[in-house]
Amino acid sequence: MKKLLTFLMIILVIVLAYNLFTFTVDETKTAVVKQFGEVVKISKEPGLHFKMPFVQNIIYLEDRILSYDIEPRKLITSDKKHLLVNNYALWKIDDPLEFVQSMSGQRTLAQTRIDDIVYSNLRNKLASETFNNIVSEKRIGYLNSITEKSRKQLKDYGIHLIDVKIKRADLPEANEEAVYERMSSERKQRAKQIRAQGQREAEIIKAEADKEAEIIGALAEKKAQELRGQGDAKALQVYSDVYSQDTEFYKFWRSLQSYKNSLKEKTTIILSEDMEYLKYLNPAN
C-alpha cells in the first residue's frame, strides 16, 4: 500500500511538473509567452516547449485564415437609395507581437476593430456610388479598393486583411417595391423604344422595296414597249415587202382580215352589193 501511494505521488509530481514547466503548440496555433505582462517568446514550431512556472503564461493565437461575418448595415447610395449590405471579411494574424500588444490576443477585440474599419471604408465608398453601379460588376473594383485601404489600417494591429466580400446587398422592404416598379417602367419604356425603332426600320425597308419594285416595273414596261415597237416595225416591214411584191394579194389578205374582225357571230351589216368593200365576197368577181 505504501509503495502504491509513493507511485501515485511520483505520477502526480510528474504531471504537475509537466503542466508547470512545459506547454505544447498545435500546428494551427502560435503560442505567445508572456512574463510579467511582457512578451518574451513566440513559439510557432509545433511540439513540446518549456516555460518558467508561475511567472510565465501562454496565449494561444489562431494561425489559420479566419472569417468574420460583419453585421448587416444600412447604407445610402449617391442616388439616395437605402441599401442593406451583408458582408464578411477574411483575415489572419500576421504579427503575433503586435496583435498581443494591441488586441491583448483576443479575437473578439480584433473582430470589433475589423468591423469598425471595414464598415467605415465600405460606407464611404458605396455612399459615393449609385445603386446600379453597386449591384453591377463594378462592385468588384469597389471591394478591392476597400480591402486595400482597410488592410493598411489594420496592419498596425498585427492583422492581415485578406479580402472583403459582399454576401448580399438588398433593398429595405420599404422602398423595394418602388425600385422594382421603376426598374419595370424603365424596361417597358426601353422595349417600347426598341419596337418603335423596329417599326421605323420596317417602314424604311418596305418603302425601299416598293421603290425598287416600281423601278423594275417601269423598266419592264419600257422594255415591253420597245419590243412591241420593234415588233410593229417588223410587221410593217413585212407588210411593206408583201405589198411591194404583190399588190392585189395584199389587198385580198387585208380584206380577209377586215371581214374577220367585222363579220363576227350574230353580226348584221346592211351593205350594197356593188360596194368596193364586198368585192371579194361577190361570186361574180
Automatic annotation (TrEMBL):
One of its GO terms (biological process) is proteolysis. GO terms for cellular component: membrane. Coiled coil: none annotated. It is found in: Membrane. Keywords: Hydrolase, Membrane, Protease, Transmembrane, Transmembrane helix. Pfam families: Band_7. One of its GO terms (molecular function) is peptidase activity. Residues 20-183 form the Band domain. InterPro entries: Band_7, Band_7/SPFH_dom_sf, HflC. HflC and HflK could regulate a protease. NCBIfam families: hflC. This is Protein HflC. It comes from Halanaerobium saccharolyticum. The lineage of its organism: Bacteria, Bacillati, Bacillota, Clostridia, Halanaerobiales.
